[in-house]
Design a protein that fits this description.
transferase; 6 helices; Ybab, Chain: A; Phosphoribosyltransferase; about 220 residues; Rossmann fold; glycosyltransferase; alpha/beta; 8 strands; PRTase_dom; 2 domains; about 35% helix; glycosyltransferase activity
Length: about 220
Amino acid sequence: MFSSQLSSDTVLFDDRKDAGERLAHLVLEQAQSVDGSFIVYALPRGGVEIGAAIAQVLHCPLDILVAKKITRPENPELAIGAVTADGQVLRSVHSRIPGWEDALNRALAKAKGQFEQFRDRPNVTATGKIALLVDDGIATGMTISVAAKSLRKQEPKEIWICAPVAPQVMIRQLEGICDRVLVLATPEPFLSVSRFYRSFPQVEMESAIADLKRTLQS
């Protein structure tokens, strides 16, 4: 890991390609010390390019696992929970509000809709494998936590959570829901994932789909 004493203004990565290559190097080092088959699950859209870099160095399949924040219409930045495309739900302390079911259903429909756009996916399962759950950064941990909950249903041998950057305060929480946490940097204060990238554009669906398709052809 990088030092947790980095400031919130420190640029750590040029872009997702740079972050993915650096994270892939760390994952490869860790993978060489364990016995087992690997499979990478990326959270679209931003996590797919990161996941593709890891799958390439491990010579393993890349799949996607869609999770969406559950938010209130009047405050879309506040996550009151998260849901995966297969219906796994995680509620935050802010979720005991009127309109929860409507908010959940909106997020679930969004997750299912995004999942269905990835038509070209590998015919694989995490059962008995070391499953790497990957995103381009972790802020609140809601989406990656509910993704881990969903992935656990497939009975993998282990789940590793991998990201270029996350808040230091999240590490212990993440360690409680998986077998290994691999994060390059844990700067404080942590205001947003994008602050640590020089270039952090929104990833278009076409780009994420193309990244996944390329791994199928390699």
